[in-house]
Request: fold
Amino acid sequence: MVLPPLKRYTITFTVATNWSINHILFFQEHQFAQCSKDPLLDLKKNQHSLPHVPIGTILSLKYKDENGKVHFRGYGNASTSCFSNVTSAKIYVGKIVDVKIPSFGKIQITGCLDDSQAYKTIQTIWKSIQEIEKRKPEFVTLPPQEPPKAIYNPVMNNVSIHINFEINRKKLQTFLYRYQGDNFLLPVKDERYAGIKIEAKINSISEIPIVQHRFLNGKWYSSQVTMNDFLALLTGKSRKEELMKKYQHVILMFHSGKLIYIAPRFELMPEFYRYFLNILQENRDKIEETCQHETSKITT
Reply:
């Protein structure tokens, strides 16, 4: 059986770094590129390319102070929603990604199309840090005798697929509860989604290598490291949070036959993807929506 291709459409990263800054000072001191017009005005939905904006451009920054007031700089419209204890950024890296920049610890990057966009995001932030450091000595702090480094943890890989037949969600839920092939397929009610949410346990991701970048003599050098190296860069609280995480395959199934598949490592996805779609195809008669088709046959 030929399965639809498996292609990620967005990736979320948490990036552990070994530097410390004042994120509010970063907000205040970053110098924005000059654009002839606001590149975020008249932006179309799902528009990725900004033809007149160089890749590696910080477009906007905002943070919320201790009184709850949101401060904004840059292009686009200010939003009242904002996270505490971080500066939120929009950065153009071939598409616009959303970034949370703390004073130290994990940087979160949402909306990447591929790994290279996460790398460019961190390189853009570090370049701005270097420029601020020239004007404000001791703005950035690094461990003694260590170069700047960043370890990229791809925490959420999203894949969208269409299985080419409609799903009866009630039938699907009943089928999965009764399915005897594996007992880890769990249909879950989740009010945030209109479809069926299915979860499958992942035992461990610790053996899958991840990417580390180190900045030496003006260049970024790449190597492979482990989750233990990622954890070692985190503060005690963040490390504890990471260690307590439970990793799962998550599948959202909709009546239309659309399927959204989420997993923390792309390397784990092809095998489970083939396994799960084979189950659907082999049991199509038990889960397919047939009422609409039967009605259309009667009326024609």
